[in-house]
Every structure is written in C-alpha cells, then in structure tokens.
Amino acid sequence: MSPRIEKVCQLFPDETYLVMRLARSSEEFRSLCEEYDLAVDALHQLEGRENRMAADLIRVAEYRALIEELKVDLLRQLQASKSADQQSSGGRAR
Q: Which domain of life is it from (predicted)?
C-alpha cells in the first residue's frame, strides 16, 4: 500500500477496505489521497520550522483549512461508494 493511501486509511481506520478499493478503482479518489498527503506533509514542515514568520502562520491556517476540506471530500467519496454498494446489493436481493 502506498504511503498516501495508508495516511487516508489512518484517517478512516474503520473504512480501510473501502479506501483501498476506491484507491484501486477511482482516479479521482487517488488524486484526493495525494492532495491530502501533500497538504499534511506541507503543514508538518511549516509547523516544524523554528523561526516562523507571519506569512508562515497564514500558510499554516490555509493548509489546515485545505486539509479539513480534503477530509470532507474524502468522506463524501467513501459515503457515496457505500451508498452505491448498498443500492446494488439491495437490488440483487429482490
């Protein structure tokens, strides 16, 4: 498993199987995982600086907001996939 996908699995530990399945099947989901990973890494780098400037503090706030948006987008993708799975399994059960 790639470190980017692993980071999203850690974010949603109860959805590891679904995260891995979507990572294999959805380019959009993989892109979100990559963006999330890059944003988290950038935030950690900024937070790790000893001599932060005002511009760094602004960037930290921007990255935190971006990360929250990406979490929402990832969760939406997971929920949409679950809904589709439930509808398709419900359709077969009839």
A: Bacteria
Cα 77 to Cα 27: distance, rounded to the nearest angstrom: 12
Contact 35, 70 (CB under 8 A): yes
Please answer whether residues 7 and 32 qualify as being in contact, where contact means their C-beta atoms are separated by less than 8 angstroms.
no
Confirm if 39 and 10 have CB atoms less than 8 A apart.
no
pLDDT digits (tens, 9 = 90+) for 32-75: 999 999 999 999 999 998 887 888 899 999 999 999 999 999 99
CA separation, residue 32 to residues 52, 65, 73, 82 (Å): 28, 15, 8, 17
